[in-house]
Design goal:
The complex is a heterodimer of chains A (about 250) and B (about 60).
Chain A lengths: L2 H9 L4 H32 L14 H28 L2 H33 L7 H22 L3 H29 L19 H46 L1
Helix pairs in contact in A: 2-7, 3-4, 3-6, 3-7, 4-5, 4-7, 5-6
Chain B lengths: L7 H51 L1
Classes of the chains: A mainly alpha (about 250), B mainly alpha (about 60).
């Protein structure tokens, strides 16, 4: 099979009818796997990990803070890929998937910001500082809000998809900054990555193992919600098309 | 419940906010999904009956 025919086969999954068929089968399995991974990671992290020297029991906050922050950035990256596919190939499902992901990304950003503030108060002595990573995360939060507001404000769905895709490309700068702000500026209160290939940088194994499972759980939860919400968006689009057809019959 | 010491309020509130936010997101996505499915079925049924009525008039 040639590469182009393989690619054509791949794009068939983005056909709305086929998308609804295969996601209907896959969704319960992904949701189940998410529940198992999240349950394991979070219960392990909360109940069965020790206190960390210098941080006390606040170390337990990383099991919700780090996965949420990681997902907030990666969901924007996924939206960027979906937006580029829309702009280049005009696949409606990709635009709807980007729209469906935004609410999940916004929630993850809110969790990361709030849990970070709650952790910062006892550790840094302040709820908030205009630190490079915190500030770029706040801007990312505003971009999520703006992205969702733009989808809601523009009536024509194709125009809305075009405009939000451009906004997504612009916002990607802040998604990258949120991830690498600590490395770029090497200043501020926020520490480096909790999960890193650099052994000296990442957390000890006793915290690392449940953290990785929580991270997998958050990732699977995102996939499950993305599939569910994209299916909802496709149904809404179909309802809109049927209402238009009804009006034509009436006319 | 593990011993959380002097940071109990911070840990419990961070976890509480996170789990509540996730629960709202999952619940809202579920409700929206069910509503869209119901509305689509109703729209398809309505369109079918309109088409049948129009065809009946044409005959």
């Amino acid at each position: 099979m040639s590469l182009s025919s393989r690619m054509n086969k791949f794009w068939e999954f983005a056909n709305p009818v086929k998308f609804m068929a295969w996601t209907g089968k896959v969704l319960p399995w992904v949701a189940g796997a998410a529940a198992v991974a999240l349950g394991t990671g979070l219960i392990w992290g909360f109940f069965f990990t020790p206190e960390a020297e210098g941080f006390g029991s606040t170390v337990k906050i990383i099991y919700v803070h780090v996965p949420a922050a990681t997902m907030a950035i990666n969901i924007w990256a996924m939206m960027l890929v979906a937006s580029l596919i829309w702009l280049v190939r005009r696949h409606h499902v990709s635009a709807l998937a980007a729209r469906a992901a935004a609410a999940v990304g916004l929630t993850m950003t809110v969790i990361a910001l709030i849990t970070g503030m709650i952790w910062g108060e006892p550790m840094w002595g302040t709820w908030w500082a205009w630190d490079p990573r915190l500030t770029s995360f706040l801007v990312l939060f505003l971009f999520y809000l703006g992205y969702m507001a733009l989808w809601a404000a523009v009536e024509n769905p194709d125009t809305a998809a075009d405009l939000t895709s451009v906004l997504c490309i612009v916002g990607s700068v802040f998604a990258v900054l949120s991830r690498y702000a600590v490395n770029f500026w090497n200043q501020g209160l926020h520490q480096g990555a909790s999960l890193s290939l650099d052994k000296e940088e990442h957390v000890a194994d006793v915290f690392w193992q449940p953290l990785v499972i929580s991270l997998v759980g958050f990732g699977l939860l995102f996939v499950a919600l993305l599939l569910m919400r994209t299916r909802t968006e496709i149904r809404r689009r179909r309802i809109h098309a049927l209402e238009m057809r009804e009006r034509m019959i009436d006319a | 419940m593990p011993e959380l010491g002097k940071y109990a309020t911070a840990v419990v509130s961070a976890w509480g906010v996170s789990l509540a936010a996730l629960a709202v997101l999952i619940g809202l996505s579920w409700v929206q999904s069910r509503r869209a499915r119901r509305e689509l079925e109703a729209a398809e049924a309505r369109l079918r009956s309109r088409k049948e009525a129009k065809n009946g008039r044409d005959d």
